Amino acid sequence: MAVTGIVNIKNEKVGEVDLNDALFGVEVKPYILHDIVKMQLANKRSGNACTKTRAEVQGSNAKPWRQKGTGRARSGSKRSPVWRGGGTAFGPKPRSYSIRLTKKVRRLGLRMALSSRFSEKRLVVLDNFDLEEIKTKNFVSVMGTLNLDNALIVIPENDEKLEKSSRNAVGYKVIPTAGVNVYDVLLHKNIILLQSCIGQLEERLLS
Questions:
Q1: Lower Cβ count inside 10 Å, N or C end of the chain?
Q2: Which neighbouring-strand residues pair with 194?
Q3: 17 forms bridges with which residues in the sheet?
Q4: Measured between alpha carbons, how far is 190 from 186 in angstroms, rounded to an integer?
Q5: 60-86 burial by CB neighbour count: b if 16+ within 10 A, else e?
């Protein structure tokens, strides 16, 4: 097992913790991370773009002019896609862009993402992150003390003070352990992990 230090919000070392190699020492395979990020972004797409076909736009079914003898191109409907105000040919219709991956692959990808940040020495373990009040200035001060300008903060459960204090600070995101995902881990340069979250991650990803 790898050993890393535990610090407090004053960036003082207060202990050490053993990190499970099955969670933080996994070999990183970029193609797996790519597939998972692609899945997450695709699943966020609403897929509600919609255009009207010639059958759906308003207009008469009457033939604009006779087939022959006028010198003009033949036309059968004012709703034709070649006419202004006509229907759209091959336009988008509501659809699902979702991609499915197995739970085994998703868990493996998250372990790889966490292992990647740990191997880059961009994972910080905090003993706790208690703020006295909801104030962005206090949160930014702690981040300055930790010398982290961009970080994903993983907490054991929802914390109103921390979440509201951080929401106006650019480059930071607070997320409970249950919501940790590959995209957010890779999007942020650093990971701040509360000590109590380590057991929760092991239970979620190794059970």
A1: C
A2: 126
A3: 4
A4: 9
A5: eeeeeeeeeeeeeeeeebbbbeeeeeb
Identity of the residue numbered 84:
R
- pLDDT reported for residue 2: 84
Q: Is the model's pLDDT at 126 over the cut of 90?
A: yes
Q: How many CB atoms lie within 10 A of CB 155?
A: 22
**In the chain, beta strands by DSSP E:** 2-7, 13-19, 123-126, 151-155, 172-176, 190-194
Helix (H) and strand (E) counts for the chain? Answer: 7, 6
Structural domains of the chain in order of their starting residue, each with its CATH number: 2-46+99-206 (3.40.1370.10), 51-91 (no CATH)
**Residue (of 30, 4, 36) closest to 191 by Cα position:** 4
Quick one: tokens of 192? 């701040």
Pick from 110, 116, 115: nearest CA to 36 = 110
Q: What are phi and psi of 171, to 5 degrees?
A: 100, 5
Residue for token pair 């659809």: 95
Cα distance between residue 206 and residue 125, in whole Å? 20
Flag whether the pTM goes above 0.90.
no
Task: Give the closest residue to 180 by CA, choosing from 60, 23, 55, 12.
Answer: 23
